[in-house]
Description:
This protein is α+β, with helices and mostly antiparallel strands. A hairpin with a 2-residue loop joins strand 2 and strand 3. It is elongated. It has a 5-stranded antiparallel beta sheet with strand order 3-2-7-1-8, covered by helices on one side. A 3-stranded antiparallel beta sheet has the order 4-5-6, covered by helices on one side. Helices cover 55% and strands 17% of the residues. The protein contains 9 helices and 8 strands. The N and C termini lie far apart (151 Å). The relative contact order is 0.11.
Amino acid sequence: MSLLTHVMDHGLDEGYAEASARREAEGTAGLPRTLKAKLALAGGLVLAAMVVTLGAAQAQLAAPVLAKEHQELIDRVERADDRAKDLDRDIDHLRTDVAGRQRTALKQPGGGQGDLVALLAGATAARGPGIKLVVDDAKGTSSGGGGGPRESAGFSDTGRLRDRDMQKIVNGLWQSGAEAVSINGQRLTALSAIRAAGDAILVDNRPLVPPYEVLAVGDKKRLGPAFQDSADGQYLHVLQESYGIRYTLSAADDLRLPAASSLTVRTATAAEQQKGAS
């Protein structure tokens, strides 16, 4: 009877009871470790599948937008290409028109090729609107001195305008659109030379005396502002601010520039060119 009573009172083996108590104490009670690992892997796979599915759905939603932007970019490129072609055609048309106008002008009385070449070369007098630029040395200048900042650049720091300064001024006028230029009545041509002899400025070996009156025939409304905004115009402004060189610039309705002296313009006909070539 005592054995039966013991079995009934202790239905679970003591070893199993001890092992179960130990697992509960260690926090490992419940599902087996392998099953827990499989469940965690399955949960991760489900989460990854959800992420991929959401990404695919977003890509499908964004695909029409990207396709639309791509097509718009293609359309913009095609429109720009058509615009460039139209501009090329306009340029060809304008070139043809300019060439026709030039041929018509040369056929008119007084518009012969020889006269036009002579005018542009400076062999004949020029007259028209333009600007008048008067440049003078700084007040109280003397031929002595030196040692200043302009001397380090090849100049003497005396406040005198130098030949290089005048070269920059004239080049700036040509670049700004001047059609004819003279300095103190000396007409400048493509063969003119501006040099120095001591403190004097020479134009074609003729000395000039300050103040220097520079006349430039051209569009009086554009020529002056264009020169002042150019690098050479800014250079002249620096000479005024830093070294006291004085200048005034004004527009003129009617300027008269003499022809360049000792300049002969020669033209050749087609027959003479062929003869020379043979």
